[in-house]
């Protein structure tokens, strides 16, 4: 290439000399070869000169050339550059082809450093904007699901903007945080959820469509530049920036609906009656007739005392669908606009968006407005200033509670509600309200539809995430950057429990408010050195960082409201409590990195970071985190040149250390705290033991990686193998309660994650006719093991799920042995594999664990002419969970609430019957027995699944159709999420994290959208 | 090159400068807590620490609920209604369903020990006066005695019954506070002998008695009579009848006149503070409310207001058993019916005897299912639903202790006439038209086991739903003879004692759990 360039230079000079001063204009258009869409911002240069321009939003350009034989050079990031002679032409239309090698694509590795894929030495997964574009998900972390090998993303529930569990390469800590560090344009975010009344994921502040790319730093050696915050990996988010050239606009909108994945098949009134009568009859041995009548009179209250209904009358009892009454078809809407442009000195990017995402469950929703402003200005050739500001505000209507078995929690009670309970009276009023004189039968004694209607709770989160920086080029090879970042957020919430609902009837309404603000200030000063000397390329970074975070809060509650019309606290008779809260921490760090590259073949990286944090003990406030990386571009070797089918081959190895400081701000301090009250006076109590030796949790990862490309990269991919050892685990080490304390924060124990990750990108079909089929596949296998605890313990005393030799989240429980065919009683195995009816603690064994063995995603993209079909499957295998909601639904007549049809249909009824569902028994506890829904293999379920996470059909409207409207590009699309799930799960949904009791479940979404550029 | 050298020097210098001040830069002090090592160095903080110790008594694991409700459920007074499912296991004496007050009481003991350690070290101006010292030490020792007494009567067999079953001893006896990590790690106590625990309780109570002032105002705080009354009870449990009688008599002499009569018994139970009380755990403001799941009111009744069966408040999870209703003199029909009030078939009390105490029981609502006769001793008396003081010691008990101490088998102060007299004092003030009745005539003839049984029966009635019954049976080595539909638990059954929390045994080889766990 270099030779060709030189040659053309020479040629150019020669030509210039021949024909002087014949200037003429050449105009034309640059299109993408793949879809015929105009490419804005393409650099068009007259070869050998500095004369040039950028294409406009419609891909057009006009450039003056000085002579007839000038050659134009078209270049655009990610595309193969083209040279076209202007000889004899006045107009040139060019189609640029995407750079299939993509090895010149840059990867961001932290603190503004970029490296080409070819030269990268770390285990980094990159997720492009396109992969997460227009997905109807409020937060970017959810959109990462299935996109990057080794990045496990699990939603806690279906609350839009709710908590997302992100694990990179397994669980590395027992009690300190396991969430990775998220960095948006250099600002390290605090991702703690401070909302009181619902889950407000701070990452939902960002409109995912404002993201240009996401890099996940997986190996400790790459992440080590973030030192003590990087033990769980780092997610770098780069937002879209302005491009010089004619101002281009995009406008897009999508709309659609969210709908339940399914409704649970629960019993109708007749089956319920049979089941409960049978349960009582089995318990009291008084016969079905007596008990049917008892249930009708006392439990279901369908008949007056002593009146025996006929079989026809029983058959005519109505079944009310409570699930349907609390679920709905939610609306999804998204509107956004952006403008980008500037000149060679100043560039800008402006964007605004509005997003509405209603859950399919009343009345939960998410509304967000964002404004983004990016400006970069070159004051002189040496000095550049830049500012990036993201303003965002989202508000959420909160559910009754985010989870839990509260009677008034509609998400808990809907499926369990006694099916004969009416929702409304004939006059349209709610049935069975307190004070109405009507009795609402059953244990679930709250009319949850009324609860949903009457109560209100809102949570608002306001964000300013922004930065200001100045960059000064001291020397061509040496740059100094001064960066100041702010992550400020204000979380406000209020909840009002209406006095007409059971929970607040007696107290005449309950109001609660909270306000919590977090100020996270960060400054980074970095020196960057870039130099190529002969065949040696150096890149070095040295930096200093200071971070100060303050968190403050206020809360209040009151009850005794005059009537439901009064919903603000100034109307309340009785203030209950007020709270004020303050906490802070500081961190100071110095860091450096050197990358060396010889001939593009041999790559070496060294990183070190020295961190000091206020969170740790007086004796251990500072820690050092070094790492080393090496890479070998084997394909660049001469002996490999003849291997033609191989287009790329690189071997990498790294070892690095990172730290985890995700503990409470004062965990090392001995504390006496206030908050107790007696006899009208405030008291203090000892609250925490000191541990002056407390220090970081250490995470050491050894990583080997292989990047490969075959057949001109039509098959390309990466294989990573890693061993991640976590040491000095931050752990609440118990002490005897007789000390007056439960434990102290300590550094004890070791954990190990070992695994393999595979990313594969294939171009399966690239037909002449324009049909293309691309596949991206990723797979991660992770093996987690607790290696050591303190004091010789094989089991963590406070947590049976932490056991040496087993993964974190080991399930230690009793084994269910099925049903005795003779009696219908539930049986268990004791520790010696004998049948027992009363399993005891000693009978427990490890039956599995709550971490998936492997997981990943599969994306297929099919394009033909303007059409594009894109679908993503996401999968998890090998995880077990207990589903709290399902456990209630499994009671099968133990108590006065509903159950799943499956358990009813398969219950034991006659001697000799072989089934795994025990006979119905009131209370669920047979004499000399235990409840059949006691924790056992029966209540832990495999939650393996493959899910069609998203399916998108896009049509790129050909530009010829658009010209009359001065639109440069347009696409319309239809998208579905969670359309199909392959599982054999009896509960609502296998995709959950946590207990699942009374959670707002996941939904499926259908959206259609349009995106325009002009 | 020169320029580059300069830049790097500046950078190095800047880095050196910042790091030299690093240690300070990352020093942050909490603003919502104080340092444990110096927390108790002012008079104000000693007072606050004592308040902190009192506040432990409000926990639902002790006087907030369990110490009041579990003795009813575990023995023969409480029947579970299965409305919320609470007490279903305790009433049926299911393995593991038992007291769990270990953590709360040992935390409280550390609060107390830290304060007791700090008081002599207090170096303040003005200096601590003798009166201040006595008030502090007196209260702290009373509280420590109460904590150890509740621990030892919960987790250990009671003196005099230990030989019957396999006793593993008393509870760990710790008299110094922990505030450093080393102290905490070294604390691996074994169970002290039961007798040693009682001896310590005696010592603390006698010190408290000497230092505390007479009960004059509200009994929310420790006072001389509370110390004496607790001493009487502890001595009775310890089969130290002479001391039990002596201390019961001390209280009766000064505060016996507080005994309620048939005329004011019921109305006094509706007061915020029961006039008979010598020590109550006080719940003053609504922020202290334990709430609709575990408060005393919700545990025992669905009613919000006495007599209003249309307004449903709490769960009403634990109600009198049929045998208790018999002792109370209440006849009820359609117990457990869910028919609305006023209609035929609704739960109804058809007859009551002349015992005024049964007027504290009435039919609950059908708001949460079936209606039962419920105890209304706790009705949100502090102005808010579910907010009631828990009575720990009251004067009636002194009469019944006196009666029992003077009639018990093996008593050194055996005096059946005096015993009868004390018993009759109670009965005269509880049964209307008692004087001259046939009941009085037969009571005057009581002797031996008949007298002892009548005292036990009066205790059962008088203190029903006040947390005595299980311990009254246990301290006498009696079987739990449950009401019909429950299974009896013999005294020799391991379920008489709860398990010491398993976590306490992990890592402490010196501690042994009770039999059966």
TrEMBL record, chain A:
Q: How does it sit in the membrane?
A: Multi-pass membrane protein
Q: Where is the TonB-dependent receptor plug domain positioned along the sequence?
A: 117-234
Q: Where in the cell is it found?
A: Cell outer membrane
Instruction: Name the source's superkingdom.
Output: Bacteria
Tell me the Pfam families matching this sequence.
CarbopepD_reg_2, Plug, TonB_dep_Rec_b-barrel
Family, similarity comment: Belongs to the TonB-dependent receptor family.
Q: Matching NCBIfam families, A to Z?
A: OMP_RagA_SusC, SusC_RagA_signa
- Official protein name in the record: TonB-dependent receptor
Automatic annotation (TrEMBL), chain B:
Query: Gene3D superfamilies of this UniProt entry?
Result: 1.25.40.390, 1.25.40.900, 2.20.20.130
**Subcellular location as annotated:** Cell outer membrane
For this UniProt record, the keywords arranged alphabetically read as follows: Cell outer membrane, Membrane, Signal
Please, which domain of life does this record's source organism belong to? Bacteria
Stretch forming the signal peptide: 1-25
Instruction: Report domain SusD-like N-terminal positions.
Output: 34-236
- Keyword Cytoplasm on this protein? no
All copies of domain RagB/SusD, residue ranges: 388-517
Output the InterPro entries linked to this UniProt entry: SusD-like_N, SusD_RagB_dom, TPR-like_helical_dom_sf
Q: Give the record's family classification.
A: Belongs to the SusD family.
| Name of the protein in its database record | RagB/SusD family nutrient uptake outer membrane protein
Its ancestry begins with: Bacteria, Pseudomonadati, Bacteroidota, Cytophagia, Cytophagales
């Amino acid at each position: 290439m270099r030779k060709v360039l030189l040659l053309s230079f020479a040629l150019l000079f020669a030509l210039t000399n021949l024909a002087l001063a014949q200037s003429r204009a050449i105009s034309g258009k640059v299109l993408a070869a793949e879809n015929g869409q105009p490419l804005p911002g393409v650099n068009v240069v007259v070869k050998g000169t500095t004369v040039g321009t950028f294409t406009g939003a419609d891909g057009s350009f006009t450039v003056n050339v000085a002579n007839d034989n000038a050659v134009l050079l078209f270049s655009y990031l990610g595309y193969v550059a083209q040279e076209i002679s202007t000889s004899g032409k006045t107009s040139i239309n060019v189609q640029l082809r995407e750079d299939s090698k993509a090895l010149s694509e840059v990867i961001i590795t932290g603190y503004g450093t970029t490296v080409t894929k070819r030269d990268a030495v770390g285990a980094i997964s990159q997720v492009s904007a396109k992969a997460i574009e227009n997905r109807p998900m409020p937060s970017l972390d959810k959109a990462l699901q299935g996109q990057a090998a080794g990045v496990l993303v699990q939603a806690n529930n279906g609350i839009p903007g709710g908590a997302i569990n992100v694990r990179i390469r397994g669980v590395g800590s027992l009690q300190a945080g396991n969430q990775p560090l998220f960095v948006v344009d250099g600002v390290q975010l605090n991702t703690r959820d401070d909302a009181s009344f619902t889950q407000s994921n701070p990452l939902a502040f960002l409109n995912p469509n404002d993201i240009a790319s996401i890099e996940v730093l997986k190996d400790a050696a790459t992440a080590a530049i973030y030192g003590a915050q990087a033990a769980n990996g780092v997610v770098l988010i780069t937002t879209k920036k302005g491009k010089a050239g004619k101002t281009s606009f995009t406008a897009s909108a999508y709309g659609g609906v969210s709908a339940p994945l399914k409704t649970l098949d629960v019993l109708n009134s007749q089956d319920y009656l049979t089941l409960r009568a049978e349960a009582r009859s089995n318990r009291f041995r008084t016969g079905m007739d007596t008990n049917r009548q008892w249930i009708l009179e006392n439990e279901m209250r369908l008949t007056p005392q002593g009146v025996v209904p006929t079989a026809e009358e029983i058959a005519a009892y109505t079944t009310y669908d409570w699930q349907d009454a609390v679920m709905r078809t939610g609306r999804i809407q998204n509107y956004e606009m952006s403008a980008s442009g500037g000149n060679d000195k100043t560039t800008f990017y402006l964007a605004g968006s509005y997003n509405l995402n209603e859950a399919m469950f009343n009345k939960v929703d998410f509304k967000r407005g964002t404004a983004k402003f990016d400006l970069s200005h070159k004051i002189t050739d040496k000095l550049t200033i830049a500012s990036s500001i993201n303003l965002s505000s989202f508000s959420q209507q909160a559910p009754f509670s985010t989870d839990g078995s509260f009677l008034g929690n509609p998400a808990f009670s809907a499926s369990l509600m006694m099916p004969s309970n009416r929702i409304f009276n004939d006059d349209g009023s709610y049935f069975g309200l307190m004070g109405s004189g009507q009795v609402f039968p059953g244990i679930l004694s709250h009319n949850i539809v009324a609860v949903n209607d009457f109560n209100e709770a809102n949570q608002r989160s306001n964000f300013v995430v922004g930065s200001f920086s100045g960059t000064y080029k001291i020397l061509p090879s040496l740059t100094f950057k001064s960066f100041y970042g702010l992550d400020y957020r204000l979380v406000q919430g209020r909840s009002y429990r209406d006095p007409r609902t059971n929970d607040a009837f007696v107290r005449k309404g309950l109001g609660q408010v909270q306000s919590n603000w977090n100020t996270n200030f960060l400054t980074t000063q970095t020196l960057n050195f870039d130099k190529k000397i002969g065949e040696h390329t150096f890149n070095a970074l040295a930096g200093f960082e200071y971070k100060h975070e303050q968190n403050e809060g206020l809360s209040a509650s009151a009850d005794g409201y005059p009537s439901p019309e009064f919903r603000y606290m100034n109307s309340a008779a009785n203030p209950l409590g007020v709270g004020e809260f303050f906490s802070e921490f500081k961190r100071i760090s110095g860091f450096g990195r050197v990358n060396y590259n010889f001939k593009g073949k041999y790559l070496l990286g060294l990183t070190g970071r020295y961190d000091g944090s206020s969170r740790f003990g007086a004796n251990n406030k500072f820690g050092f985190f070094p790492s080393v990386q090496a890479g070998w571009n084997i394909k660049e070797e001469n002996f490999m040149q003849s291997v033609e089918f191989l287009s790329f081959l690189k071997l990498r190895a790294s070892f690095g250390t990172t730290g985890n400081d995700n503990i409470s701000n004062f965990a090392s301090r001995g504390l006496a705290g206030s908050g107790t009250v007696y006899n009208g006076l405030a008291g203090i109590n000892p609250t925490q033991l000191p541990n002056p030796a407390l220090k970081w949790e250490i995470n050491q990862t050894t990583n080997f990686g292989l990047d490969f490309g075959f057949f001109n990269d039509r098959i390309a991919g990466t294989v990573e193998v890693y061993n991640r050892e976590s040491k000095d685990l931050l752990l609440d080490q118990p002490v005897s309660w007789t000390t007056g304390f439960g434990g102290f924060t300590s550094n004890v124990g070791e954990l190990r994650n070992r695994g393999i990750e595979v990313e594969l990108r294939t171009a399966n079909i690239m037909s002449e006719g324009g049909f293309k089929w691309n596949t991206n596949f990723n797979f991660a296998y992770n093996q987690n093991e607790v290696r050591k605890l303190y004091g010789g313990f094989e089991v963590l005393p406070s947590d049976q799920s932490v056991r040496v030799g087993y993964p974190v989240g080991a399930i230690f429980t009793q084994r269910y042995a099925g049903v005795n065919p003779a009696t219908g009683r539930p049986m268990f195995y004791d520790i010696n594999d004998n049948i027992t009816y009363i399993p005891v603690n000693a009978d427990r064994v490890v039956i599995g664990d709550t971490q998936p063995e492997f997981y990943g995603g599969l994306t297929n993209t099919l394009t033909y002419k303007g059409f594009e079909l894109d679908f993503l499957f996401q999968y998890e295998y090998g995880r077990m969970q207990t589903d709290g909601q399902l456990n209630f639904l499994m009671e099968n007549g133990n108590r006065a609430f509903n159950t799943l049809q499956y358990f009813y249909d398969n219950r034991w009824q006659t001697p000799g019957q072989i089934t795994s569902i025990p006979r119905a028994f009131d209370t669920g506890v047979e004499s000399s027995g235990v409840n059949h829904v006691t924790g056992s293999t029966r209540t832990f379920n495999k939650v393996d699944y493959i899910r069609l996470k998203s399916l998108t059909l896009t049509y790129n409207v050909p530009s010829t159709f658009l010209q009359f409207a001065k639109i440069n590009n347009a696409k319309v699309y239809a998208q579905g999420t969670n359309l199909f799930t392959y599982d054999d799960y009896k509960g609502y949904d296998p995709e959950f994290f946590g207990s699942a009791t009374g959670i707002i479940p996941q939904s499926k979404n259908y959206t259609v959208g349009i995106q325009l550029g002009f | 090159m020169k320029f580059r050298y300069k830049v790097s020097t500046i950078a190095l210098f800047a880095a050196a400068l910042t790091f030299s001040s690093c240690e300070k830069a990352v020093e942050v002090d909490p603003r919502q807590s104080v340092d444990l090592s110096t927390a108790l160095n002012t008079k104000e903080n000693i007072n606050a620490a004592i308040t902190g110790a009192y506040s432990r008594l409000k926990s639902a694991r002790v006087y907030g609920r369990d110490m009041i409700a579990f003795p009813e459920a575990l023995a023969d007074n409480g029947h579970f209604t299965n409305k919320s499912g609470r007490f279903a296991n305790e009433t049926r004496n299911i393995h593991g369903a038992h007291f769990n007050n270990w953590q709360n009481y040992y935390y409280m003991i550390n609060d107390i020990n830290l304060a007791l350690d700090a008081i002599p070290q207090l170096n303040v101006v003005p200096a601590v006066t003798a009166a201040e010292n006595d008030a502090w030490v007196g209260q702290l020792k009373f509280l420590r005695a109460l904590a150890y007494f509740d621990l030892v009567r919960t987790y250990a067999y009671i003196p005099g019954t230990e030989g019957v079953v396999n006793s593993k001893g008393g509870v760990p006896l710790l008299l110094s506070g922990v505030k450093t990590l080393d102290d905490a790690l070294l604390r691996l106590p074994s169970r002290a002998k039961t007798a040693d625990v009682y001896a310590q309780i005696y010592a603390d109570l006698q010190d408290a008695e000497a230092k505390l002032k007479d009960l004059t105002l509200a009994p929310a705080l420790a006072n001389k009579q509370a110390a004496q009354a607790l001493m009487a009870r502890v001595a009775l449990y310890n089969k130290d009848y002479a001391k039990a009688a002596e201390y019961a008599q001390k209280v009766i002499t000064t505060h016996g006149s507080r005994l309620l009569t048939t005329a004011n018994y019921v109305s006094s139970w509706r007061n915020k503070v029961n006039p008979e009380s010598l020590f109550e755990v006080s719940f003053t403001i609504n922020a202290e409310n334990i709430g609709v799941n575990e408060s005393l009111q919700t545990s025992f009744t669905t009613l919000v207001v006495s007599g209003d069966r249309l307004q449903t408040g709490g769960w009403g999870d634990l109600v009198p058993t049929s045998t208790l209703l018999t002792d109370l003199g209440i006849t009820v029909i359609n117990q457990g019916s869910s028919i609305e009030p006023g209609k035929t078939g609704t739960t109804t009390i058809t007859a009551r005897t002349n015992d005024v105490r049964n007027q504290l029981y009435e039919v609950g609502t059908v708001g949460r299912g079936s209606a039962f006769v419920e105890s209304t001793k706790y009705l949100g008396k502090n102005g808010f639903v579910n907010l009631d003081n828990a009575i720990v010691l009251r004067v009636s008990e002194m009469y019944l202790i006196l009666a029992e101490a003077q009639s018990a088998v093996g008593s050194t102060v055996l005096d059946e006439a005096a015993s009868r007299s004390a018993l009759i004092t109670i009965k005269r003030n509880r049964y209307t038209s008692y004087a001259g009745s046939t009941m009085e005539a037969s009571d005057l003839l009581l002797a031996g086991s008949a007298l002892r049984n009548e005292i036990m029966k009066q205790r059962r009635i008088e203190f029903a739903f006040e947390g005595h019954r299980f311990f009254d049976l246990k301290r006498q080595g009696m079987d739990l003879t449950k009401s019909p539909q429950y299974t009896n638990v013999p005294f020799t059954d391991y379920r008489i004692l709860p398990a010491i929390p398993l976590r306490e045994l992990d890592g402490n080889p010196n501690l042994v759990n009770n039999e059966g766990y």
